[in-house]
Amino acid sequence: MTRRHAIVIFDGECSFCSSSVQFIIRHDPEGYFKFCPSQSETAELIRRAYDVANVTGTMILIQHGLAYTHSDAVLRIASRLNAPWKFAKVFLIVPSCIRNTMYRFVSANRKRLPGKKQACMMPTDDVRQRFEIADEDWR
Q1: pLDDT tens track for 61-104
Q2: pLDDT recorded at residue 64
Q3: Angle 62-22-100 from CA coordinates, rounded to 5°
Q4: What sign for the dihedral angle of Cα 118, 123, 127, 133?
Q5: Cα angle vertex 100, ends 1, 138, to 5°?
């Protein structure tokens, strides 16, 4: 069964991660991605169901019944965004050990990157719905 949405699990306490989610929302006009902060109970259920409960320091993409982490997740997310971002999928040909080394460097330093959230974004109803994950979205 092909699902209408993919789910992105992200660190809801990280400014860089939250900015990344806002970027995805802006460049995903079809509303393909739904979002779930990793600190939520729903995220924990999803992570256990997809055997990534112990994976940390990365966005997790749940798509077509599979879980993707690290650079695989980011590049697959980018491939669904509008141009020019969708062309980033060509980097999937780079060996994952190289891609993930770069990903881990950014991940390890993400909380040191400039920018602190002064306030949370006030989402529209359309955006708010993208943070509501139903069982049928991931089971």
Answers
A1: 999 999 999 999 999 999 999 999 999 999 999 999 999 898 88
A2: 93
A3: 50
A4: positive
A5: 20
Task: Answer for the pair 82, 29: CB distance below 8 angstroms, yes or no.
Answer: yes
Among residues 1, 16, 7, 136, the alpha carbon closest in space to that of 80 is found at 7
Closest CA to 110 of 28, 20, 27, 43: 20
Instruction: Fill in the DSSP letter of residue 35.
Output: E
| Ordered strands of the 33-37 beta sheet | 33-37, 6-10, 60-63, 66-69
133 — pLDDT class (breaks 50, 70, 90) = confident
Query: Which residue has 């900015």 as its token pair?
Result: 19
Q: How far apart are CA 101 and CA 70, in angstroms?
A: 9
pLDDT above 80 (res 119): no
Find where tokens 């995805």 sit.
Answer: 24
In degrees to the nearest 10, what's the CA dihedral of 52, 53, 59, 63? 50
* % of the chain with per-residue pLDDT over 90: 55
